[in-house]
Write a structure and sequence with these properties.
single chain, about 45% helix, about 15% strand, 2 domains, 5 helices, alpha/beta
């Protein structure tokens, strides 16, 4: 048993003195222990790194959720009509419209011009040029007697004085803005000849 005892003494001496290899080039207990500790440190280091990555992803996900738009309500709930001041005037009935030959009894009459929107006062045949933003207030200010055919206006387009491309573009822009304003007010449009 002397041989086994020598091996045991060599192993104990190697573990206690710090020898890392026996004479045959093989790793001994201390080197294995050191390797195990290094591996354990790497595992801890990787775990900490993975934890940081996890929390960074979690923060990024939270930021994305916080910055996203809230879900949209269904269309019928989202579009609650805003009061315009013209709600007391009933919706029009096209079968009751007069002929264009009798313009004295017509509803509000608007003329698209290159310099704005002309509001025609049919009682004295005057045209008051309005800016786009003045149209809602002007229509709301009219008495209910000014709307004999209900919530509809007559719209015409003036012939340009100078038929340049810029004038035509101004007329198209003013017309589009007018029609958008009338749609927001829930006022129907009848085109004048």
């Amino acid at each position: 048993m002397a041989g086994g005892e020598n091996v045991l003494r060599t192993v104990l001496r190697t573990l206690t003195t710090g020898d890392t290899e026996d004479h045959g080039g093989r790793a001994t207990g201390e080197s294995l222990l050191r390797h195990g500790l290094d591996t354990g440190q790497n595992i801890v280091r990787n775990s900490v790194r993975n934890t940081y990555v996890f929390f960074a992803c979690l923060v990024l996900l939270g930021a994305l959720v916080a910055c996203s738009k809230p879900p949209q309500a269904p269309a019928e709930q989202a579009e609650t009509p805003q009061p315009t001041g013209l709600e007391s005037i009933p919706t029009p009935d096209p079968s009751k419209y007069p002929n264009f030959s009798d313009m004295t009894a017509w509803n509000p009459y608007l003329v698209v011009r290159e310099d704005g929107i002309g509001f025609v006062d049919l009682s004295n045949r005057e045209i008051h040029v309005l800016k786009q933003e003045e149209i809602p207030a002007e229509l709301v200010a009219l008495p209910s007697s000014a709307w004999p055919y209900c919530r509809v206006v007559l719209v015409a387009q003036a012939a340009p004085k100078n038929p340049s491309e810029q004038t035509k573009a101004d007329l198209r822009k003013n017309r589009a803005l007018l029609l958008g304003t009338l749609k927001e007010l829930d006022v129907q449009v009848r085109e004048a000849p």
